[in-house]
Amino acid sequence: MTDLHLLDATAALGLFRAKELSPVELMRAVIERHEHVGAPINAYTETMFDEALDAARDAEARYQQGVERPGLLGLPVATKEKHMLAGRSLSQGLTFRRDDVSDVTHPVVERIRRAGGIVHARTTSPEYSCATVTHSPLWGVTRNPWNLDYSPGGSSGGSGAALAAGFTPLATASDIAGSTRVPAAFTGTVGYKAPYGRIPGVRPLSADPYRGDGPMARTIADAALLANVMLGRDPDDHSSIWPDITIPVRADVADLRIALCMRLGDYRVTTEVEQHTYAVARALADAGAVVEDVELPWSSRAIAETAFTHFGHILGPAMEDETAGHEAELAEYTRRFIADARAAAERNRFVDGLRAETRLQSELATAMRGFDALICPTSCTPALAADGDYLDGIDIDGVHLEHYWESHLTLPFNIANRCPVLAVPSGVASTGVPTGVQIVGHPYDDASVFRVGAALEQFRPRGNNHPDIESLR
After folding, report:
1. How confident is the model at residue 398 (pLDDT cuts 50, 70, 90)?
2. Alpha-carbon distance 243 to 198, whole Å?
3. Cβ atoms 73, 116 nearer than 8 A
4. What is the Cα Rg of the chain in Å?
5. Cα-Cα-Cα-Cα dihedral of 251, 257, 263, 265, to 10°?
6. Segment among 84-93, 215-224, 347-356, 397-406 with least mean pLDDT
7. CATH code at 88?
8. CB-hemisphere CA count at 13 Å for 170?
9. Residue 425 belongs to what domain range?
10. SS3 350
11. Which of 63-67, 73-77, 342-346, 452-456 is predicted least confidently?
12. In the predicted model, is pLDDT for residue 463 greater than 60?
């Protein structure tokens, strides 16, 4: 079987169950792929290949014996380093934490292992997952398999790069401002920001409604497969919700009404991104959906101010507490994030932030009234430089934005945090880097966003879904 490293997880499970493919064969394929082209991409913080092969042999035996087979049995899964694994590193990219070891395992990793998934590697992120590029003094620069000059995005950039490059069929991610959806856009993969509480987290930031953990994959079905393992109530996280659900995947959108909002107010979107987003809208219309343009009265600067007010009262102080005495060792983008968050909290009280958040949530609800979902671009720009820090802002079509967070359209949906959002590919830009759209649902309506995503995957198939890494080396 050629290109075994690019086999989808759902297809692999079918072959495992039919005894036409061994989990050992698939594990060897993704390991060999990483050994062949992994160095220039730099997507992993560590590998556990020997342990993974042993686990794959155990899974192979279970399939041969016909014993109980949990839902991910034998599948390789790469997990973001911040998703703790007992006995393994928990540095979050910080040089002064390089020797820290976790004594607990994150609930999403526990669930993956309980379902038979095999954690064979852990993926890179920027320090504290607080940038939309992926590089750090500890791990270096992670590059986009589609074009090594560019970033796979952040903060779950290692997961996106590993998926696109064929190092794994499934990966974990996290999202507090777009950290799942931005890498999904830039790597041509699928990322899911679940509604707050759908997937359990770790205290104390499990109580922060902006944040969430979730799946990344190469297909809609695979994203749903991993999401269904990760979601559900956890007794140690009282913000996790019940009853549990199972996300279905169906591609029929003939009875759906979908809102298209290109700029979410005044976000500046490049021509290429706009064209690809319109092509997505046309594909949905051709599939039978009613697609109509809507407007939102949002300002990208006001959204950034709202979010940084939130960060300034929660995440920023938490980061300051954990880095006290080591400020000089932090990456400049981390220091900048902490400073920006502190400044916003000094300008605005927590209740001021709540007023702004609930106003935005109400405006989104009004715009989506009468529609089943909303689509919009994921990022204004089609690429970010792999080693860029954008501390001086970013230029979009000749207009300078003070903060590069204004170049992504993800942040509003961390503010509207009960809305499920599925990030899917929309095309490939002239840079060779993919572009993407977000599918936004009403609060806790996970099924609708997967339904729209599945329709796009079926009715607007892309040509070459995988980067030609050999030509980039």
Report:
1. confident
2. 10
3. yes
4. 21
5. -140
6. 397-406
7. 3.90.1300.10
8. 35
9. 4-472
10. helix
11. 63-67
12. no
Partners of 101 in the β-ladder: 89
Residue 473 confidence (pLDDT) above 60: no
Q: How far is CA 247 from CA 146, 193, 377, in A?
A: 30, 13, 23
CA angle 472, 422, 6 (to 5 degrees): 40
* 179-200 pLDDT per residue, tens: 999 999 999 999 999 999 999 9
Q: Report residue 417 as tokens.
A: 């945090």
> Residues 269, 183, 140, CA angle at the centre, nearest 5°?
120
Helix (H, G, I), strand (E, B) or coil at 110: helix
d(CA 401, CA 399) in angstroms, rounded, equals 6
Q: Under a CB-based contact definition with an 8 Å cutoff, are residues 206 and 45 in contact?
A: no
- 251 C-beta neighbours (distance < 10 Å), count: 16
Which pLDDT tens digit goes with each residue over 1-28?
A: 569 999 999 999 999 999 999 999 999 9
Q: What is the mean pLDDT of the chain?
A: 95
Contact (CB, 8 A) for 434 and 187? yes
DSSP, res 466: S
- Confidence grade of residue 243 (pLDDT, cut at 50, 70, 90): confident
DSSP state of 117: -
Q: Distance from first CA to last CA of the chain, Å, rounded?
A: 24
Domain count within the chain: 1
Q: For the whole model, what pTM was predicted?
A: 0.97
Count H helices and E strands in the chain, helices first: 14, 15
Single out the residue of 423, 420, 425, 426 nearest to residue 447, CA to CA.
Answer: 420
Amino acid at the residue 411? L
